[in-house]
Design a protein that fits this description.
By secondary structure, this protein is an alpha+beta fold. It has 11 helices and 10 strands. It has helices at residues 7-24, 28-34, 39-47, 66-79, 81-101, 104-116, 231-267, 279-307, 313-338, 349-359, 366-376, and strands spanning 123-124, 140-144, 147-158, 165-175, 178-187, 193-196, 209-220, 224-225, 269-270, 273-274. The strands form 3 sheets. A 4-stranded mixed sheet has the order 1-4-5-8. The protein has a 4-stranded antiparallel sheet with strand order 2-3-7-6, covered by helices on one side. Helix 4 crosses helix 7, helix 5 (81-101) packs antiparallel against helix 6 and helix 7 (231-267) packs antiparallel against helix 8. The protein binds acetoacetyl-coenzyme A.
């Protein structure tokens, strides 16, 4: 067993940390306040070759592994979680299904612009009545000659406004008395396709979260992604990878909160001594360090299993569940250590606490992760 990062992973970590500290962190507070999407950062990430990081070089990617992807998500999220989630969704929800299930022609047409950063990646599964019960999809896809006509609504879709196309699920028929769900690649500028960017969120203010409305949207039949009727399974497989991204985001936010709490505790004096000298705070900070270490190891293990081509559904659910729950706890404790100042925006930790909450909900709630783990252990 070897816990060291490879030379390539170390290089990616150095590059992205330097980029995140110089280019991403400085504007994070202001972007959160003004709800400004970090467009320029994504132009620069494309220049750095990060937008197609784990995808094959023949489609413009960098051919890196999932551990490298997790490192990039962690480092971006440590600086700005809105940037982290945009990147994570771009790769693991936007690019991944095309990479995993697309034909060569589809990859040339749709994966290449994702790798170059010309389009952000987005994925449409969730609907107003199909959240945790993702199979409750009501969007329909009806074949008409050489076309498929799609009608329905998707909600909470990351990157919708900056995606030139979205992979989405729709009911394409019935099989053995059950809904048959297929996936399609749909251009966002198609007639009848509306992207609404109107949510008022608790956190992740600089990320783009949208509703998609499809009214008689016609796409050629060849826009079917993967096999007909396999859309639901394909998207569950995609989510396994996405959950590694959310785990990595949680580690990044928790790391940032820990670093700020540690440094504040040594600077702040009360009762005639630094508050870091009180055992109550030492134990809090020790627990934070412990839980971040465990969460990061779980994220890396799930990523490693994926890279080995081995099953990783259980480990992805475990790392997402554990990392997001400790992130919520650590960010809340970081606010607590900062006292009244922690409640103020300029100390950053209140933003971390708000951003952290989404990680227990998005890409499968903590309850869904427990369902996935329970099924994986044979229940
Ligand atoms: N990989 C491959 N196949 C899988 C799988 C996986 N991880 N998990 C299940 N399957 C297969 C099953 O074997 C089963 O196959 P058969 O029909 O051949 O037996 C099929 O898929 C259906 O599985 P289940 O019966 O387990 O399905 P279910 O309806 O009970 O749902 C669930 C299971 C775990 C609750 C699932 O619905 C789920 O993960 N829900 C949460 C969805 C989620 O994470 N949504 C957030 C999406 S993020 C988003 O849309 C917005 C954004 O931009 C961020």
């Amino acid at each position: 067993m070897n816990f060291d990062l490879t030379t390539e992973q170390q290089m990616i970590k150095r590059t992205i940390r330097e980029f995140a500290e110089e280019e991403v962190a400085p504007g994070a507070l202001e972007r959160d306040r003004s709800k400004t999407f970090p467009k320029e950062i994504f132009r620069k990430l494309a220049e750095l070759g990060m937008m197609g990081l784990p995808f094959p070089e023949e489609y413009g990617g960098a051919g890196a592994d999932t551990i490298s992807f997790a490192i990039v998500v962690e480092e971006l999220s440590r600086a700005c979680a809105s940037t982290g989630i945009t990147y994570s969704a771009h790769i693991s929800l936007g690019g991944a299904p095309i990479h995993l299930f697309g034909t060569k022609e589809q990859k040339e047409k749709y994966l290449v612009p994702i790798c170059t950063g010309e389009s952000l990646g987005a994925f449409g599964l969730t609907e107003p009545n199909a959240g945790s019960d993702a199979g409750g999809t009501q969007t329909t896809a009806v074949e008409e000659g050489d076309y498929v006509v799609i009608n329905g609504n998707k909600c909470f879709i990351t990157n919708g406004s900056y995606a030139k196309f979205v992979s989405l699920t729709a009911v394409s028929g019935q099989k053995d008395g059950k809904k048959e769900i297929s996936a399609y690649i749909v251009p966002t500028d198609a007639e009848g396709f509306t992207v609404i960017d109107n949510y008022e969120k608790m956190g992740l203010h600089a990320s783009n979260t949208t509703e998609l409305v499809l009214e008689n949207v016609k796409v050629p039949k060849e826009n079917l992604l993967g096999k007909k009727g396999e859309g639901f399974k394909q998207f569950l497989m995609t989510l396994d990878g996405g959950r590694i991204g959310i785990g990595a985001m949680a580690v990044g936010i928790a790391q940032a909160a820990f670093e700020r709490a540690l440094s504040y505790s040594t600077e702040r004096s009360q009762f005639g001594r630094s508050i870091s000298q009180f055992q109550v705070n030492q134990f809090k900070l020790a627990d934070m360090a412990l839980k971040i270490e465990l969460a990061r190891n779980m994220v890396y293990k799930a990523a490693w299993l994926k890279d080995q081509g081995r099953p990783f559904t259980k480990e992805a659910a475990m790392c997402k569940l554990y990392a997001s729950e400790v992130c919520a706890e650590i960010t809340s404790q970081a606010v607590q250590i900062h006292g009244g100042y922690g409640y103020m925006k300029e100390y950053h930790v209140e933003r971390f606490m708000r951003d952290a909450k989404l990680l227990e909900i998005g890409e499968g709630t903590s309850e869904v992760q427990r369902m996935v783990i329970a099924r994986q252990i044979g229940l």
